[in-house]
Amino acid sequence: MATAAAAPPLYASSSSSSSFSSSPNKPLFNNIFFLRPPLPSTKLTTTPRLSVSAAATTAVELGQAPQSSTPAKTLPFRVGHGFDLHRLEPGYPLIIGGIDIPHDRGCEAHSDGDVLLHCVVDAILGALGLPDIGQIFPDNDPKWKGAPSSVFIKEAVRLMHEAGYELGNLDATLILQRPKVSPHKEAIKANLSALLGADPAVVNLKAKTHEKVDSLGENRSIAAHTVVLLMRK
């Protein structure tokens, strides 16, 4: 008498000491009309599968938001962006990057109003995940009245080194209608590099007009953007 073949197991599985996987061992073909000979179905199964491993169970915990296993302070790179804008008024000096620029008006501010150094400070603080320049050096503190912005940038650089980082590169853009920055560009870049303790090759400075649009284009204000890349020492 013929003996019926044993039914195939419902699930095919493999396992080791640290992982387990399973997939349905269903027949691959159901109600199908073949126009050509089917492919050999040996060792083929349908696709829904289950995998449980030590790595997966430790990486995902139900009910908890995913978190980085690397503390932020150990990240190899950090990026920060800074922005600043000041109103231009007669009777104030115009200081950009620590350089006194001849002009008929300057930045109205609690400190010396150096828009470039202010946004560089904010970019470094942002990369470190720290509060902005207004919180660390508040404009209602008499101590900072008329203070040179080099004080702020030196403190930002100190915090950067304290956190274990150094400047990878910096890219800054000044936006002003007048005066022309090009005659002073190299002096500004050299002074900024010195304040940062960085090679001038990693410090870039650009300047643009605002095409006579709004307060920037009407010579009533000046603005700057800065992006910095910090690298783990």
TrEMBL record:
Cofactor requirements of the protein: a divalent metal cation
Residue segments, region Disordered: 1-24
GO BP term, pick one: isopentenyl diphosphate biosynthetic process, methylerythritol 4-phosphate pathway
Biased composition (Low complexity): 1-23
Enzyme class: lyase
Record localization: Plastid, Chloroplast
UniProt protein name: 2-C-methyl-D-erythritol 2,4-cyclodiphosphate synthase
Catalytic function, reaction form: 4-CDP-2-C-methyl-D-erythritol 2-phosphate = 2-C-methyl-D-erythritol 2,4-cyclic diphosphate + CMP
Keyword Protease: no
Superkingdom, natural source: Eukaryota
Domain 2-C-methyl-D-erythritol 2,4-cyclodiphosphate synthase: 77-230
